[in-house]
Amino acid sequence: HLQRALFSPRTLFSFAVFYGAFTFTSKASSEVLLERVGNAGVITLNRPKALNALNLNMIRHIYPQLKKWEEDSETDIVIIKGVGGKAFCAGGDIRAVTDAGKAGGPLAQDFFREEYILNNTIGTYKKPYVALIDGITMGGGVGLSVHGQFRVATEKTVFAMPETAIGLFPDVGGGFFLPRLRGKMGLFLALTGFRLKGRDVQRVGVATHFVQLDKVVALEKDLEDLTSPSVRDVADVLNSYQEQVDGTFHHLHILSKMSPTSLKLTFRQLQLGASLNLQEVLMMEYRLSQACMRGHDFYEGVRAVLIDKDQSPKWKPSNLAEVTEQYMDESFSSLGDKDLKL
């Protein structure tokens, strides 16, 4: 049952779409649009053919603009959204990172470092930050949204952190927000990569609000028209659009055949992250990202899911018992002067 659930045609197609999206490239200036609308700074992820996947050039455009808007007296709120109707942002540029890691190129360090710095900027932002997470929101897309003050889901939202399926771990601050979800929901989502849909995204606390898709354009306009909005003003506008969501979370019963190394790293990541602040988590996760770049399973996972598409990764080690405590300790150890600095 487990294997059928993980490797069903629908699931395999999803992985192919979500991760295969990262082969498209175009000029960064058109990949992300940055504009002032009323009192709002609006970020539009503009790679619809790639499901708005996040690459390093996009990060390098978004980060300085966020810093400028934070200090700009005429910008009172930031809104981030995606185009195309299918995705907010399906993830990060995994293919490019894989190629760089194999070749020993700097992107394997630069991408994670600069992405995490951007995640931290969002998590510490001084002005209201509203992410309209309509459609697929995974991996790097979660990092662009979940640390902001407001996250608005719709009936088309699909949330997941599927990194353990490719020998990685739920990064972009997953070690911070996942253990803070109620019960053990965060651990379940982290280990299995399970996809939450629609109202369930708010039920578990990933989204702060749920708004019907046909009302999102009007909501965005109301936010842009706010004069000198405070967090309270923004919350009032969002609450006025909020659809009623009951507190019942539907039974989730899937477990997936993931990388044993990723599972162990993720388990400890969330255990430690529960008592760390966002900056400490991102520093920890950068160390883990580099451990994955040095290891086997990340490249094998990407090969099995993206390149050869045989969906039969050969994990090393192949079981949890063989993932040693020494390896775990080394993965979490300081990188010295190469540690992430925030």
TrEMBL record:
UniProtKB keywords: Branched-chain amino acid catabolism, Hydrolase, Mitochondrion
PANTHER family registered for this protein in UniProt: 3-HYDROXYISOBUTYRYL-COA HYDROLASE, MITOCHONDRIAL, 3-HYDROXYISOBUTYRYL-COA HYDROLASE-RELATED
Any single GO CC term annotated in Swiss-Prot or TrEMBL for this entry: mitochondrion
Organism: Electrophorus electricus (Electric eel)
Ranges that cross the membrane: none
Function: Hydrolyzes 3-hydroxyisobutyryl-CoA (HIBYL-CoA), a saline catabolite. Has high activity toward isobutyryl-CoA. Could be an isobutyryl-CoA dehydrogenase that functions in valine catabolism. Also hydrolyzes 3-hydroxypropanoyl-CoA.
Pathway in which the depicted protein is active: Amino-acid degradation; L-valine degradation
Family membership noted in the UniProt record: Belongs to the enoyl-CoA hydratase/isomerase family.
Pfam family, one: ECH_2
Recorded catalytic activity of this chain's protein: 3-hydroxy-2-methylpropanoyl-CoA + H2O = 3-hydroxy-2-methylpropanoate + CoA + H(+)
Signal peptide range: none
Limits of the Enoyl-CoA hydratase/isomerase domain: 41-246, 252-332
Cellular location(s): Mitochondrion
Organism lineage string: Eukaryota, Metazoa, Chordata, Craniata, Vertebrata
One GO term of the biological process aspect: L-valine catabolic process
Enzyme class: hydrolase
Name of the protein in question: 3-hydroxyisobutyryl-CoA hydrolase
GO molecular function terms noted in the UniProt entry: 3-hydroxyisobutyryl-CoA hydrolase activity
EC number of the protein: 3.1.2.4
